[in-house]
Amino acid sequence: MPAPALPAPAPLPPPVPPPTRGGAVPALALLGACHPLPAAAVTLFAAVLAAAAGRGPAGTALTAAAVGAGQLSVGWSNDRADQRRDRAAGRRDKPLATGAVPAARVSGAAAGALLLCVPLSLAAGLLAGAAHLVGVAAAWAYNLRLKGTAASWFPYALAFGLLPAFVTLGLPGRPWPPPWLTGAAALLGAGAHFANVLPDIADDLATGVRGLPQRLGTRRSAALAAALVLASTAALVLGPPGPAGPYGWGLLALTGVLLALTGRASGRIPFLATMAVAGADVLLLLARGAGLR
User: Fold this and answer.
1) For a surface tag, which of 17, 164, 174, 207 has the fewest beta carbons within 10 Å of its beta carbon?
2) Can you say whether the dihedral through the CA atoms of 17, 20, 23, 24 is positive or negative?
């Protein structure tokens, strides 16, 4: 009696083709795998926050270097963790999915950036460095596990919320940031998470990723993203002592209008709107630098 036929194995995503040009990895492809826009935005936000808080040129440069290294490690590890899903979804905007850069190179870059982040963070002081490294660890936890859970928003809120602490704990006396600043940063981080996921919800669901935005759906996630970003701006405007001033009230009104106009937009527009609001918030922080500590 013939043996029963075994079921055919599930098909794997197509193999990554070898890099061209004699094995050389194009620098732009490696850069494209680090999520350059969010990484640059967060690094700039931290640098401006450090300057506004009075860290001085050296302290501001150190803050930017530590945050930049952390963001590179987070971006590269994210694309490395998502490589199979991105290939299955046919993501042509992902260098790892298209084979423009080998996985081993991205893994090495992520590890190297993380190793560099540790001494750069601790150079600002043990407590300040610990605050930043907890935030970086939260981002890695999102990449490796929490992205597909209902707690997907939490690493963003924690990492962004600890960023002001990294800045102020490096000041003389190691003061903690005011609660309104921590809250505003955490709200902005959570809002950025929902806005960033919006264009990928369909692909995520098809590949088994069920974070909180995927569970809520596009419409509710877009509304929640707008509400969180608006609440972040409100905390920056209304939290510090003293009058908000024309710029603060104007920023709050402009944020509401911008989010209302982009709330039903598709693609990357909601996320870019969030980045625009964050840029305006940075200007407000510069104007109110004396109240950041």
Assistant:
1) 17
2) negative
Residues 198-216 pLDDT 10s: 888 888 898 889 999 999 9
The residue whose two tokens read 């809002």 is: 191
Q: What percent of the chain has pLDDT over 90?
A: 48
- What's the rounded Cα separation, in Å, for the pair 77 and 144? 8
10 Å Cβ neighbour count for 93? 8
Which tokens belong to 112?
A: 């190297």
The CA distance from 226 to 38, in Å, is: 18
Most confident segment among 47-56, 107-116, 168-177, 217-226: 107-116
Nearest 5°: the CA angle 203, 209, 213 is 85
79: nearest Cα among 59, 93, 65, 67: 93
Given a contact cutoff of 8 angstroms between Cβ atoms, the answer to whether 195 and 285 are in contact is: no
Place of tokens 């909180």: 212
- Residue showing tokens 């919320």: 161
Kindly provide the b/e burial profile for residues 197-206, where b requires at least 16 CB atoms within 10 angstroms of the residue's own CB.
bbbbbebbee
| 277: Cβ contacts below 8 Å, ≥ 6 apart | 229, 232, 233, 255, 258, 259
User: How far is 183 from 205, CA to CA, in rounded Å?
Assistant: 30
Q: What angle do CA 43, 59, 140 make, to 5 degrees?
A: 40
Place of tokens 């080998």: 102
Residue at token pair 């918030």: 281
| Residue of 92, 162, 100 whose CA lies nearest to 128 | 162
**Does 49 score more than 80 pLDDT?**
yes
Q: Is the distance from CB of 221 to CB of 194 less than 8 angstroms?
A: yes
Angle at 60 between CA 188 and CA 272, to 5 degrees: 30
Alpha carbon distance 141, 73 (integer Å): 12
What whole-number distance in Å separates Cα of residue 80 and Cα of residue 279? Answer: 29
